[in-house]
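Support request, please re-run this one:
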Amino acid sequence: ETCGGKEHDLMNINISVHNMVSNVNFKNMTYKTETRMNTTLIDILKELNRTNENFGFSTVSYTGLGEMITAVNGLEQNDALKYYWALLSVTEQKRCLLPVGASSYHPTPNEHIVLAYFTLDMFKDFETCGGKEHDLMNINISVHNMVSNVNFKNMTYKTETRMNTTLIDILKELNRTNENFGFSTVSYTGL
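Re-run finished. Output below.
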């Protein structure tokens, strides 16, 4: 069967909006949302904005970098006071700044993302998310012949890759780093 359906395609994440600046009046909120796997954070926020009247945000788009969040639920960044929106990933063990912006980040199932209103000085209090436990995953790529009259050696390759890497990029890297693996592709316009 083809992979699909709710068990393969959808995931739950929590989006919280927190003001971490003590002299700014703002109601902190948490939103639970269901989204498709491998959806960028910016697209998840756009869908949340479309479907939840209690959530809104604004961005500024930068060529080559994507969209930067400039306001959430009416609270705008303040360049003069150096108050900005930051993106955090929160687990029971730690809180860390996302290594990329909302246009590039792909949340993982059950991840808790916090849109945090910070002073510029607060950024130094948080490490950037990263390291093997956050960014990398181990996968097995198995190549199997399912045609009985073709002589072919079935193989399994173990590899480590970054989360949210496309399968084609994983295969290209495996081809580059493993002399026993090779593959070719055909490109179709529009597919």
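The chain is about 15% helix and 35% strand. Strands lie at 10-19, 29-36, 57-62, 66-72, 75-76, 83-90, 95-97, 112-119, 136-143, 155-162.
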